[in-house]
Amino acid sequence: MHFEIIIGAAMIVITTIIQGVFTMVGVEYMRDYADRHNEPALIWSTLRLAAFVLWLFLATITEVWVWAALYISLDAFDSFETALYFSTVTFTTLGFGDIVLEDKWRLLSSFEAANGLLMFGWSTALVFVGVQWTFENRAQHRRKRTRHD
Questions:
Q1: DSSP code, position 103
Q2: How far apart are CA 34 and CA 50, in angstroms?
Q3: Which of 5, 38, 86, 126 has the fewest CB within 10 Å, making it most exposed?
Q4: Which H/E stretch holds residue 1?
Q5: Domains and CATH numbers, the chain
């Protein structure tokens, strides 16, 4: 059990680092784009926001794959496809229960589910910030345009 706790905690650290890297790159992109473009059209603002959401989704996919790789390295599953399916269902807290870990590894699924909740919360907060930045950026450009008219 102690080994499972250590592995689970290490995985949370690893996925937090992954999420942090994706966050920093995505946030820098959002800020740089806003600084470089004087008057964003509605379609470009929407596409930029959609790209940001997809970027965060890629972070989630990466984290799920890291968990799946762990399960394969522990010989918890026979195939990567099964490990990936289990990891996806667990990380998203969907939890069908059609595939489960054997008793010696079952505590890891709790760590992964908790990890998924944290990472989805983090991503949700970032999407909110992205929407907020998009509206603020558009409002700022509208104010500038109004002052010049």
A1: G
A2: 15
A3: 38
A4: none
A5: 2-37+45-140 (1.10.287)
Question: 79-117 in b/e burial notation, b at 16+ Cβ within 10 A?
Answer: eeeebbbbbbbbbeeeeeeeeebeeebebbbebbbebbe
| CA nearest neighbour of 11 among 114, 106, 92, 94 | 114
Locate 72 and state its tokens: 């394969």
Tally of residues, the chain: 149
**Predicted confidence band at 23 (pLDDT cuts at 50, 70, 90)?**
very high
Give the tens place of pLDDT for each residue, 43-89.
Answer: 888 888 899 999 999 999 999 999 999 999 999 999 999 999 999 99
| pLDDT for position 34 | 65
Residue among 79, 109, 111 nearest 97 (CA): 109
Q: What's the alpha-carbon Rg for the chain, to the nearest Å?
A: 20
pTM of the entire predicted model: 0.86
